[in-house]
From TrEMBL:
UniProt-listed Gene3D superfamilies: Winged helix-like DNA-binding domain superfamily/Winged helix DNA-binding domain
Pfam families linked: MarR
Molecular function per GO: DNA-binding transcription factor activity
Entry-linked InterPro entries: HTH_MarR-typ, MarR/SlyA-like, Tscrpt_reg_HTH_AsnC-type_CS, WH-like_DNA-bd_sf, WH_DNA-bd_sf
GO BP annotations listed: response to stress
Name of the protein this chain belongs to: MarR family transcriptional regulator
Region Disordered, annotated ranges: 158-196
Residues covered by the HTH marR-type domain: 38-173
Source taxon at top rank: Bacteria
Taxonomic placement: Bacteria, Bacillati, Actinomycetota, Actinomycetes, Kitasatosporales
SUPFAM superfamilies from the UniProt entry: Winged helix' DNA-binding domain
Amino acid sequence: MTESSQEPPQAPQAPPELAISEQVAVYQREFPNVDPQVETIVSTLSRLSRRMTVAYGRHLNDLGISSADWEVLKALIVAGAPYRLGPGELAKRIGLTPAAMTHRVDRMATAGLVTRSRDESNRVRVNIELTELGREKWLESMRMAAVFEESLLQDATPEERSELAGALGRMLRRVEDSQPDAQGRTDDLAPDDSER
């Protein structure tokens, strides 16, 4: 056989992912004390999170932005009009080092998503500001996410959605309370979410 007629080697295929019930059965076999109901919920949440992250990444890719870009756009939107923050505050809100934030802002400014300008009241200070293109990209990502998220919950009644939101909010708070390095992300939950 000549070299040109040989097929290139195929990358090994990952085995198909077990169904959640099969995965839980394996866990029970190996660790009989596992609560199958709890493990089913936690495994489903974990898999759902991974799949949603992939879907959101594809939506953002279709818009020509990355998840990292979206985090910066979101932080500027959350800051409110005029959608402007200093680089240090922006880095703190996103959880990046100032050097990493500078690199990200450089890339986003080149893409026209943000601008960098001197603060009028303090010429030493620099502001990062959302551009119209950046705002449009963020709004379009939100439109795409809203359609996707509504489709995920299409079969849930308003009461079920409320119960689910409350239960997930309580779970999130427990994780963040027990894992100090996971803190900082509950500020976006309404105080009464944990009371449901």
